[in-house]
Structure prediction request, 488 residues.
Amino acid sequence: MSAADGVDPTPDQTTPRVSDATVGRLPVYLQGLLGLAGDGEASVSSEALAEIAAVNPATLRRDLAGIGITGTRGVGYDVKYLVHEISVVLGLNQAWPVIIVGVGNLGRALANYEGLTTQGFPVRALVDVDPDVVGTSVAGVVVEHVDDLSKVVDRDEIAVGVIATPASAAQAAADELIGAGLASLLNFTPVQITTPPHVQVRGVDLATELQILSFYQQRSTAAASGTGVPLGAEHAPDSTDDAS
Amino acid sequence: MSAADGVDPTPDQTTPRVSDATVGRLPVYLQGLLGLAGDGEASVSSEALAEIAAVNPATLRRDLAGIGITGTRGVGYDVKYLVHEISVVLGLNQAWPVIIVGVGNLGRALANYEGLTTQGFPVRALVDVDPDVVGTSVAGVVVEHVDDLSKVVDRDEIAVGVIATPASAAQAAADELIGAGLASLLNFTPVQITTPPHVQVRGVDLATELQILSFYQQRSTAAASGTGVPLGAEHAPDSTDDAS
DNA sequence: TTCTGTGAAATAGTTCACAGCG
DNA sequence: CGCTGTGAACTATTTCACAGAA
Prediction:
């Protein structure tokens, strides 16, 4: 029983089978490595890089071994080589043009975020529904109408769709992006969008992140002060107000 | 992380020990439940909610049981009750005032994002280093100088610090926030910041998310087209065939 | 000697499957 | 009956610990 789900005459071999957990850490390693490279470091030990990435050294070594990266015993890993290899594994040796749907506050901020372009995700297109916004230029890109989305995706060879619409329009935006042939979406709205299985969606939701922080903060405060109410602010529970 | 390691005279009992995996899903359930509540639904089965949240029903039931939430056999879970209980567990029955450090494009977008305030994370303070920005008003909040950060945190009873500075200033911002007594940080820069163990940091990094998307997109494209180069763009990197 | 690569053990998390309450 | 709550099996991931390459 290979890992394949359904019927697959070609079990694997072509598939190195990198675990999701590993994939999630690769960008962290890469980030740390870029810092080291900037400092002129030629090699790193798994221990040093693990510290930077805040993981266990064994985990790091296993991750690297798992994607076929090998170091030198007694020495460590070659920084430049590592950067290159991880980049290849992540697919960063090529550009992945991005379209942003929804040019409000957030969309505008994203369009202006140069980290995107410099990291290989050039913002090639912006679309919105608002006629007042369509035609304006943001970060050097002219905003087009969302009705032309499919055409635009095709024309600009877009690879990734970013959803920065109001929550109410998120599902529609996703549907259109998928209809245009995209299989990689990044959803900035707080709603869960549903997609066919071949589409990869990742969500970046502020509220979610904050709620998780809130949980841990509450827990640690409670632990510290016995039966703690956090901070100085004492808002008695109750009030489940917005049952919306 | 770092739950009790070695010596702990009081093993637990006070600590319900909710798993990280569960905590990460609670906001998703909550989101789905709010939608159901909005539709006027009075109760849900684990199956229905699991579908909305895209998880296995057993996982959902276990999560809920794990935080002490109980349903009614043969019926399901009471929506309003669930919303309330999850909110309490996440600590959402109180407000967690937020400070944003760095009022650039991103900081401004975050400050204007009303989702924050409506979900119990009011943006109470903004600080920046730029004298041109200090004194201006963004989203109804006057930007103060970062030198006053500690004072501001104290005055406004801030609970969460959001780092929206340029990457180069991220660590310094984190240090100041921690120095001001905060234990919950949300880092929007692409750099890994280091903090003492009692501080919870969560990162929302666009590049990381996109790199992960890139990986999966590349994998699926490769799988689909045999030996695939993705999309129409054919950037043959140099053959990085393994070097093992 | 140092530091990788990896069996093997330990942990964590998921999912099945079903007893049993309402 | 339908659907929860959970033992038990299973799968995934982490971590230890150490053999062995450079």
